[in-house]
Amino acid sequence: MPHPLPRRRLLAAAAGAAILAAPARAAADPIARATITPQGGMIAGTARPAPWRIGFSDGYGATPWRAMCLAAIRQEVASHGPQIAQLLVRDAKGSVSGQISDITALIRARVDAILCIPNSPDALTAGLADATAQGIVTIPFNLPVRGEHWSSYVGTDPAQKGQALGAWLAAALHGKGGVVGLGGVPGNPYTAACWAGAQLAFKGGGITVLHFADAWWQRDRARAVMAGLAAALPNIAGIWCDGGQDAAGALDALITARRPLVPVTGDDYNGLLKLYAAASAGRAPAFDFGLMSEPSWQGVIALRAAMTLLAGGSVAKRQMVLPAMITPANYAAYIRPRLPDGVLVDTALDDATLGRIFA
Fold first, then answer.
1. Whose CA is closest to 268, among 82, 43, 7?
2. Which residue from 240, 247, 225, 221 is spatially nearest to 178, judged by alpha carbons?
3. pLDDT tops 60 at residue 11
């Protein structure tokens, strides 16, 4: 699911090319297991001497995902030693006007680059354009900023992810059967785009959509929603979700109702992987799943892009991330059995760091 308000070499021109997934432990270099598609042509940087000062404007840092994102950025900064003199972090705490002020403050601090997760696709346009005009490298990521007056954007395409999850579910059901869909907070654009992509994947085949409901990306809500759907719909063959909390809650409801567990989709919620491991212990796999994350390591890609431009290299105007698919075949590389359910496992962070974040 998205994370708006409510996973050693620099990226150079060649880094825009697709990088295929690798079957490494999840804590390995996250870019090595992702597909990154360049869009919008290449942008050339202007070399300036290191060490550089990097600013990070976080629109709302009070979520576990944002804490994981910042920790990954700090880890990447540390890996570059003397190339980065300082990382200046400002948290707008959900305020659009506060983030506008934060961007202004980073410009006045004469940083060399600004990384940004925007609170608004429109309100930060002027501030980032001003920074870019003053020669500061600007890299919005995770959530978009309208226009083109920034250096490069890093993010995922929810429609593409939704279609990939829909295609996985259709294949898991051998192209036929009735499915239900569970989304996030009512009216959010991420779920809308994901679900539209999923329906494209279902179109023209034998998949029938029985019902779609909002489940708020909350396991308890999804459990209650699915309990009602299971009682009303006896022939649910699969469950499409854009969030792993929804998927886990839906399966909880089927377990309580003593219904067969069915294939599900979602994101990289540790609780779902732990549910699968517990339900499958000592016997055949209990259910099938296909998961795609909203990687907290997008900030690492954004930082590497900024450093490439500061070194005089080139990056794509847009770097679109398609995370690896997590399934029963590779989930052992991602599950964190000793950590809380809320951990998002498509991460570059080790268990000790995650333990501190989720303490």
1. 7
2. 240
3. no
The answer for residues whose C-beta is within 8 angstroms of residue 278's C-beta and 6 or more apart is: none
Strands 314-322 and 35-44: antiparallel
Distance in angstroms (rounded) separating the CA atoms of residues 329 and 43: 38
Cβ 169 vs Cβ 179: under 8 Å: yes
Q: Which residues pair with 181 in a beta bridge?
A: 212, 240
Q: What is the largest CA-CA distance in the chain?
A: 66
Please name each of the domains of the chain with its CATH number.
Answer: 13-157+295-323 (3.40.50.2300), 158-291 (3.40.50.2300)
Model pTM score: 0.83
Q: H or E element: which one contains 92?
A: none
Q: Are 187 and 156 in contact (CB under 8 A)?
A: no
Residues 45 and 97: their CA atoms lie apart, in Å, by 30
Question: How many Å apart are CA 251 and CA 245, to the nearest integer?
Answer: 10
Q: Which one-letter DSSP state was computed for residue 14?
A: G
What does the pLDDT look like over 24-55, one tens digit per residue?
Answer: 444 456 677 788 999 999 999 999 999 999 99
Backbone angles phi, psi at 263, to 5 degrees: -60, 140
CB 90 within 8 A of CB 84: no
Task: List, for residues 285-294, the tens digit of each pLDDT value.
Answer: 899 999 998 8
Q: Which residues of 105-138 are buried (b: 16+ CB within 10 A; e: fewer)?
A: ebbeeebbbbbbbbbbeebbbebbbebbeeebbb
Separation in Å, CA 353 to CA 347, 350, 357: 11, 6, 6
- Establish how many alpha carbons lie within 13 A of residue 224's alpha carbon, considering only the half-sphere containing its beta carbon: 7
Output the six-digit token pair for 16.
């825009």
Write out the H or E segment, with its range, that includes residue 359.
none
Query: How far is it, in rounded angstroms, from Cα 346 to Cα 162?
Result: 17
- Give the chain's end-to-end CA distance (angstroms, integer): 22
Which tokens go with 71? Answer: 């920790």
